[in-house]
Amino acid sequence: MSSASQPAAVVLLSGGIDSSTCLAVARQQHECHALTVEYGQRNAPELDAAGRVARSLGVVEHRIVELRFDWRGSTALVPDLGAPQVPRSADAVAPSAPPPDGVPVTYVPARNSIFLALGAAWAEALGTPHLFIGVNRVDYSGYPDCRPAYVEAIQAALRLGTRRGDLQIHAPLMELTKGQIVRRGTELGLDYGLTWSCYDPQDAPAGPRACGLCDSCIHRKKGFAEAGVPDPTPYAPTDRG
Amino acid sequence: MSSASQPAAVVLLSGGIDSSTCLAVARQQHECHALTVEYGQRNAPELDAAGRVARSLGVVEHRIVELRFDWRGSTALVPDLGAPQVPRSADAVAPSAPPPDGVPVTYVPARNSIFLALGAAWAEALGTPHLFIGVNRVDYSGYPDCRPAYVEAIQAALRLGTRRGDLQIHAPLMELTKGQIVRRGTELGLDYGLTWSCYDPQDAPAGPRACGLCDSCIHRKKGFAEAGVPDPTPYAPTDRG
To answer: For the residues B173-187, what does the mean pLDDT come to?
Structure first.
């Protein structure tokens, strides 16, 4: 699948569908160094998923960076007393209605900027300009740091702010729908059973189960349905008929 | 010195001369939230200094963010087996000669981008656009992430990548010499005896002493000399005559 002559790349990997597919795409042309940031996020099974995906796709190294930052009150993705709740779909099919400003409550302030700056640091230490991120604007357009203009701007800033000055941020999923992403990863042999999306996992004896109701679960289901690919996700049984 | 009606600001604070002076400047017009990042840096006394300076200048809150990132081989500022050594001045007056590309070995890849992204995240959580950083290009012009063009570019990127979109990065020391910085802070009542600069502190019974020979010590001495202000730093005795 790869050879030692492939150029190195750093790939941001959360363990969800998008970043895992992004890694599968990057592996086509690069020796990959996967970077996962542990920042206190609610969906801890994602971290395990990142490790499974990294191993299955044969990365050179998988680093988990611990970031002890206090996100108090600023996002629903990191549990704290004052944070908003993870929204749930009313019908288990459509995502919840977005807030008035269009930015989901699961938005984490400046998250991709923090991750890309860390990725740029590692890429520079490795001596490569290549940095991959699995952002896409189609299904999550409410996140400001998933837009092409943002990616261009942060690339320009990180070029000016590093020694090499030639950073290349690759966002190969930018224009794909969730269905197209799942189809692409499936073609590349990615096992989506290894990935994790749910923001609100439920404990179960055989391991965590996806709630099936949070926005991330809804988008995931939609992706598999659109792609015509069986959904391998273990969903929790729900009360709703 | 301040009132509750002052707008909030996040101030990046390492505990050195520049960031401490920047905090003193910011305190003139803002309620300040100081942000220190603990990233395994060699000069641990800097962290204590940051706490002392934050208290003395009356910040609302001082957060220390732990970042467990492996900087292996990429900077002299974080100790590891493969890292270059902190350079020492040959005559205890002039800094060491810079490497051929002009970037000091104490450069930390993408450091200010990581710090500014974290600062932008906190500022957004606090509901303020104001973020201060004590970079200046005069005495440390070898660092790519201390230049005005970089600060402008990262501000543009962080505006695009956050919900508010109105981040203002203030770099009030950008055009000052080290001497002008020390004079400014002294006018503002900052006690530089609380700050710490040395990259290579020496243990001593009464507390750590500055080596007096690393580039950071040389710049510090030069600042006090230029400003005509007594240097309160406890330097270690050296062998040199």
So the answer is: 96
Asked whether residue A212 is domain-assigned, the answer is no
User: What tokens appear for A99 in the block?
Assistant: 């807030």
**Cβ contacts of B117 on chain A, cutoff 8 Å:** 110, 113-114, 117
Domain count, chain A: 1
Joined together, the tokens standing for residue B143 give: 């660092």
Q: Of B9, B72, B24, B22, nearest to B188 (Cα)?
A: B24
Q: Smallest CA–CA separation between B229 and chain A, in Å?
A: 33
Residue B167 contacts A, CB cutoff 8 Å = no
pLDDT of B63 higher than 50: yes
Token output for A78: 């990191």
Lowest mean pLDDT among A192-201, A223-232, B93-102: B93-102
pLDDT digits 0-9 by tens, B8-27: 999 999 999 999 999 999 99
Range of the domain at A137: 8-85+109-197
| A67 chain-B contacts, CB cut-off 8 A | 65-68
* CATH code assigned at A160: 3.40.50.620
The ipTM value here is 0.89
Mean pLDDT of chain A: 88
